[in-house]
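Running this now, will post back.
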Amino acid sequence: TWLFFSEIYGGTNTYISEVLEQRRGIQVERLHLPPGQERYDMEAVVATLDRVQPQLLYFEPVSNPLLVVADGNALLQAAKARGIRVIVDNTFATPYLWRPLQQGADLVVHSVTKYLAGHGNITAGAVCGNDADLRKAARAYRKTVGHIVSPDDAYRLGTQLSTFNLRVATQCQNAWKLAQCLASHSKVENVRYPGLDSHPTHQEAVTLFGENGFGAMITFELRGGRHAVETFLRHVQHHVKFVTTLGDPVSILIHVPTVFTSERFPYPGMIRFSVGFEPYETLEQAVLTALEAIA
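Update: finished.
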């Protein structure tokens, strides 16, 4: 049995259902967050590990789009104590905030398209590992199925990685400032940013990320629901892009119920905001102008 956290990338969930379960016959269990809950109960997680006794545990330390932070170090410790192999998708946290391989993860995967490349000009992924046999198997599979980055993209990635720390540090700083700005605005509610004391998993974020920051993603809701969202988008579109990616130089947003499902996230005013590394004053002014346009 393989155990997956439910709060993971939608494409991964599709792969689990359509490939791992349907085609390969792998027994899969999912660890769900109860409705309305935005914090993992570690006692319940450990109890699930003991009940399921999985061969593999797969999780993301920061969920999408609610930004629930898992106690990644505690998860790794609990899994390794039970002989469970662990794969971590560290795309949202990035190595700038957390390095799960140093904590004993067997494999770490990244959508390189996002923060590692950081410019919206490369489509790539990465698999990194401590386990030599798993690395060898991953390399053989990649060679067979042809998932190999082009030379041009590899060259660009090598160049762009040289600014990774500078880029992500600035994005985290911008996000921290913008989250505070949004939290104090009368037309905004339920600002979800792990750096805010009000976030349900703020303490987990402090424990996991230390002093490096709290990431560059913010999820918030506009008072007034769908109508407020339409007004906000109309006025912010000249500065902020509307695309489903993240980690680009400029800020990006999506309307959560449109991109995900309204059944899963029934919040008509919810926006997920990927903060860029543009000058903060420019970003704040664009956001405030759009907010003031809401009646």
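Residues 164-183 form the longest helix (20 residues). More later if anyone needs it.
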